[in-house]
Amino acid sequence: MAAGFKTVEPLEYYRKFLKEACRPDGRELTEFRTTTINVGSITTADGSALVKLGNCTVLCGVKAEFTAPPADAPNKGYVVPNVDLTPLCSSQFRPGPPGEEAQVASQFIADVIDNSQMLLKEDLCIAHGKLAWVLYCDLICLDYDGNLLDTCMCALVAALQNVRLPSVKINEETGLAEVNLKTKHALKILKHPVATSFAVFDDTFLLVDPTGEEEGLASGLLTVVTDEDERLCATRKPGGSALAAEKLQECISRAITRHKEVTNLLQEALASVKSE
Amino acid sequence: MKETPLSNCERAFLLQAIAERKRLDGRQTYDYRNIKITFGTDYGCCIVELGKTRVLCQVSSEIVTPKMNRPTEGILFFDLAISPMAFPGFEMGRNSELSVKLNRLLERCLRNSKCIDTESLCVAAGEKVWQIRVDLHLLNHEGNIIDAASIAAIAGLCHFRRPDVSVQGEEVTVYTPEERDPVPLSIHHMPICVSFAFFQQGIYLLVDPSEREEWVMDGLLVISMNKHREICTIQSSGGIMLLKEQVLRCSKVAGVKVGEITELIQKALENDKKARKEGGKFGFAESLPEKRITALKMEKSAVDTTDVENKVEKIILDAEPPSRVISKPVVWTEGTAQIGEGQENTWGQLEESEEDDEDEDSAPESPNVEMQTTKKKSLKDDVTMSDSEEDDVVILQPERPSQISH
Amino acid sequence: MEAVGSVLREYGCEQSLLSRPDGSATFLQGDTSVMAGVYGPAEIKVSREIHNKATLEVILRPKTGLPAIQEKNQEQLIRETCESVIIGSLHPRTSITIVLQIVSDAGSLLSCCLNAACMGLMDAGLPMRALFCGVTCAMDNDGTITLDPNFRQQKESRAVLTFAIESTERKVLMMSNRGVYSATELQQCIAAAQIASEKLFQFYRDFIRRRYSKS
Fold it and tell me: Which segments constitute the Exoribonuclease phosphorolytic domain (chain C) (predicted)?
């Protein structure tokens, strides 16, 4: 009976739950799904992490390569995030060039990296105007079940903290770069931005961490990215139902709490690796 | 959305009108529609209106490495894009035939006629030259795109100023507009396209065909000419055969038209220059028609935002502060940690029965058996940690089958 | 914090200036200018039709070069904003296409795009449940808010926030931004944008009154 009701009137089905301030999967409105982090999942990458938020799974691999710094900023390197939504993760995606959602997610992640100043691009420069690191951060979605941005942000931060770059010296006589694979160092990550997404139902209910199903039914989405100083690195609300300033403040409060949770989680996960 | 085709009676009507030497918009055979040129605030930006056909042009410059076979010449690049807003039948990627044809013609008219001194665009021979890029956007298609585009392109090029550069040894310095005035391009002559549409196998001829007229025409002759009456390009398309006299007559007409249009462009350029020099207002905002009822302007207006702080303070005070309760993460194994208990992922189901799920996220050397015990223990810790957990588990259990089933 | 000196630049708008689209508008904010063309409701390919509402498409065209990932992002923001106000259920299985052409960028581009889109939709006569307007705020290092910043102000600022405000309750439809800021600053910007939106909606009203009044 319930399954039939859900198929015919999915929105009404959700409303019945929301009236009781809970969700069909048993969560409270402000509760996240189980968040699991695994760092160093890929041994061939310079840094990697796998993050699961309920079923939504994103794998982030960071590959570092040499490149010439950009002409207009000779003391900087590059960070190139790329979100990949393959047909593997959901039937709604087609093979071929990245679709709109993947492009928008990539742009969002790139914006957050720039805004939050999580790592200084100057640190990626090896020799002024000649050699710099480019960090290709590939975010591959393995299972698409809502709240892609939160999962991606979390995976990216974890993977970047996992990156170990070999030390590079420029030989002054030959002008060539010498790579010392034995001494590796971590990147200087200054900020740890954490994203928190919300779905708006009927202009009144705010659901934290929406699943794919909830995202499809919601009338609006909102993503808030905070850093450890409780400052906002990005707030993104792409249209949808209108939101009053008071509601927004609630979201920010929840995002700040979530930031603490995730930072703890990241620290624990990373600490457990270092102890080996 | 498909373009509405022309009906047969409309076609017959148009042809009959042309045979009676009448045009739907009341023009004579050799009349152009009104041409209006407006310059933007940026250098090299203009909008040309030919009747209701509208083309936006933007010229930009960039320092690039020259082509191997022409190390001392700058590069000219043209791109005439048909915007989807130009007409309803347009689809992205389609209509490439029309677009290719127009681009090719434009290139022949402007690049191959050597109207721009490309050698003056050289910064350091073989290493650095200016690339001048001309982007044209067709905004509204009411016929005769090529004439409007060629006027827009040449007006844009004349208006454009590139940043000044200086070369000292190998060092190339590009100056910002504040440091040094940007320099104009050196333009030898101004080629302009004039289109002639032929009907009934060349019996009737019209200058500047409108969109409807283009539908019924048999052939099109485009003559590109400068004001010295030098022909730069001539192209006949549509598969009609023209007599020598016809072409000569067309070229004479084109000469007159080009003279008029060149004068118009120069006048528009002068007006813009004067406005800039006198520090007066210029740009698109000034060209907004004042009298039309479909246009309105609002003067600068101050916004009083003094009240903002109080209002905001209230909102923030009213809102619930962030909660201090933070759940403690559980470390399962090296590099794997978890928080939260809401809707566990379906992978978690495997852990009771199968053991291979550990391979996904654990260090390879850890023995499997040991892993499982630690994990189960940690999960139990979870349950006791918070009070509402038993309920959650109870709800989750019946939900799972339904999740899988749909 | 001193935010009294905020000034909206000169605004201008013209509708129905293109003959081919069903609705068209150009919107000017100081030297920033965007042109919009709206087609629809019109027939649609079967593969793209939605059975209970109109399919909305937004195409944003940069002035030079090809559309990049940045434009895609803005397209999505504008599309979702329009989608929330257009009553698409009145025209199921049709397409509504909004084409935006950047004519000149002198700061506050996204808000100008939004305003042009709204004006274009109005001209096309599409049913909407509310109007919306775009407001951009720039914040510099000491927290001063500048409304409708020009290119230079935008560049020198610490954070730039763009909002879409709807006309019925002045709620926030869309938010997008660059830079870091605190929650308080965000709220201040929203409040400022809401005040600025009054001016814009008044402008909308004057505009429509001028166009449709008999005198």
Answer: 8-127, 131-194
Pick the CATH number of A31-275 from 3.30.230.70, 3.30.1330.60, 3.30.470.10, 3.30.450.40: 3.30.230.70
Classify each residue of B292-307 as buried b or exposed e, where b means 16 or more C-beta atoms within 10 Å of its C-beta. eebbbbbeebebebee
Low-confidence ranges of chain B (pLDDT < 70): 1-2, 90-95, 324-326, 342-406
CA distance A41 to chain C (A): 29
Instruction: Report chain B residues whose CB lies below 8 A from the CB of A52.
Output: 345, 347
Check if B301 contacts C (Cβ < 8 Å). yes
Taking the C-alpha atoms of residue A183 and residue A246, their distance in angstroms, rounded to an integer, is: 51
C10 and B41 within 8 Å at the Cβ level: the answer is no
Mean pLDDT within C154-163: 91
Q: In the prediction, which pLDDT does A158 show?
A: 93
Contacts C178 to A, Cβ<8 Å:
111, 114-115
Please determine, for residue A124, whether its predicted confidence score (pLDDT) is greater than 80. Answer: yes
pLDDT tens-place string over residues A4-15: 888 888 888 888
Of A159, A64, A140, A57, residue with least CA distance to A98: A140
Section C37-55 average pLDDT: 90
Residues of B in contact with C145 (CB under 8 A): 305, 308
Of B297, B301, B311, nearest to C8 by CB-CB distance is B301
Contact A195, A115 (CB under 8 A): no
- Predicted ipTM? 0.89
Residue C135 main-chain phi, psi, to 5 deg:
-130, 130
